[in-house]
Amino acid sequence: MARAAKQAKPLTDVVKLTRAQAKVEHMRLALEVEAHDRRYYQEDAPSVSDAEYDALRQRFNAIEQRFPELVSTESPSQKIGAAPSGRFRKVRHAVPMLSLDNAFVEQDVRDFADRIVRFLKLPDEQIDFSAEPKIDGLSMSLRYEGGELVTAATRGDGAEGEDVTANIRTLDDVPQKLKGRNIPEVCEVRGEVYMTKQAFLALNRKQVEASEAPFANPRNSAAGSLRQKDPAITASRPLGFFAYAWGEMSAMPEETQSGMIHWFERCGFKTNPLTKLCHSVEQLIAFHRKIEESRAGLDYDIDGVVYKVDRIDWQERLGFVSRTPRWAIAHKFPAERAMTVLRDIEIQVGRTGTLAPVGKLEPVGVGGVIVQNVTLHNEDYIKGVGGDGEPIREGRDIRIGDTVVIQRAGDVIPQVVDVVIDKRPKSAREFHFPKKCPCPLHTDVVREETAMGEEGSRARCTGEFACPFQKIEHLKLFVSRRAFDIDGLGEKQLQFFFDEGWVKEPADIFTLQKRNSRLKLEEIEGYGDTSVRNLFAAIDSRRRIALERFIYALGMRHVGETTALALARGYGSWDAFHEACLKVARKDEEAIAEMDALDQIGDTVIQSIAAYFGESHNRGIVDRLVKEIDAIVDAEKPKSNSKVAGKTVVFTGTLEKMTRDEAKATAERLGAKAAGSVSKKTDYVVAGPGAGSKLAEARKHGVTVLTEDEWLALIEE
Fold this sequence. Notes:
Distance between the termini: 60 Å
CATH superfamily of the largest domain: DNA ligase/mRNA capping enzyme
CATH topology of the largest domain: D-amino Acid Aminotransferase, Chain A, domain 1
Oligomer: single chain
């Protein structure tokens, strides 16, 4: 039974809210809605009635409609449902659902085919490949026993997925009973659940008509629709299914991949009509080019083409490496572009005071994502000037009202790559970069100097930590995963505490519990006794921290993770580092020379440290923070006698036995340098599945390439 909601105060009509009032209430409602979602979807313990919850969502949506600048990718309005954990029964896949290795350029495809030829030792025999569009949807495994559908499970982590059988039964493309003859007793059909572009647009029109936020893209809509707790909701959503693979089979009805595709059709499944049998690498590449050219005209999203060895007995001989099959590869498409109109340019202020112009676009779909914002880098980029002072885009500037070409590659923030001058309207307005910071202090904006003493392209607010924009960004860095990593204190919660005046600097986080008798966090909607207790426990668990994390968390300009680690290892302890910083700030030549002698530390970093500790305001922030910390753990000295000491190593592709961060940290502990790019000076490249351009660079320079297992064997000897 739902626990009674707390008595709410009379609410101001949304149309009468000021922007400041709306921002505070938006933050409060976001926290409250997310808490209710967690209780409903994950804990199965709702604390309010459906009507009360609906009222909260309606008010939240109304605020976002009136103040669209409050909408972010983390907003509850941009999410479908909640995390699925606990909502569905877990299903163990009888045969793991593996991922595919990726090819990004044509040479990768040729290398893929060459590896197969060498492995099979069939240089004179033709190898046929089945080629099909790579659907951007939700992977699904359908298990049939005696021809009847018994279980439908998502991919999950590949070994274990979620049971969505009741929901999948509502799809017209999924037969409840397999047709035809030659049906194995046990048969697992695998494929992709998707939503067509037309269905997606129609669904979004209904969302808007119902005063609900539209979905981001067809894939997310399909995934969210399938994960609904009520199958009736899934049934109301226009979902499709393409069959293209199999899992456990008690008997194989065909001997080839292409034969299995036709068998799926005879059983009652829809298969992709563009699937083609290719007899050479050249045919594969020609198929990829053809599909890429016709991509925009397809009514469903694709992000590449999948090639599979056609003979199943050869697939079995080829087997797998790590978690990817040797007999298949996904040939991805390059960055996708689109044209749209630039409606406005806004300025955002970052943690170090850098003013970043952001273009506000007429929403457009690019690579399966609806893009509304685009980075414009800096003042010079808008003017059509590159970092070297030379013209870019042939000198074409970017104006408000212009039709622009935008590009998005993977998860990279979209950027403007060109301006369509022929479409420039007479009303297009030049953008004048601000001379004053948009913060309430309106402090001066200056252009940074380069190492040569010349004016750079980046503009900065001179307000430092007095600027509220920089304050909140500094706090976000402070609690981030690679700094203090405080669980339960995300951007929304932090922004709310900052707006309320409860957390203005890092030390305030550690005094929240002391002040809670006055703040009464547990009485705030969206919180409760348990969540507040968990938050305080998470904060207390971070009163002991490694020196390099502490240095990074201070937020000094030009002191990133790598530099913080170099400083920590150079000085060893907080006391030694702190004393050196104070001396550098006083221009002590001996202290400056000592810091300059450290590996990876130069004039820019030293000047930044001197400026930071030269300000009494900053020294006060640090002193108050140190008083709240139980221990700043001395840095671990890297080994100098390991086999990789002094070597430069680059990690690329997907690592199976450790995260990329763990791999880099291990290498550095052993005295190696973990670099981000490959050069002639690189000693090792550790390549996992999906390795692309870095692997190609390693081969170009003759760098030693190791698998993850070979790397682990090397460092364990």
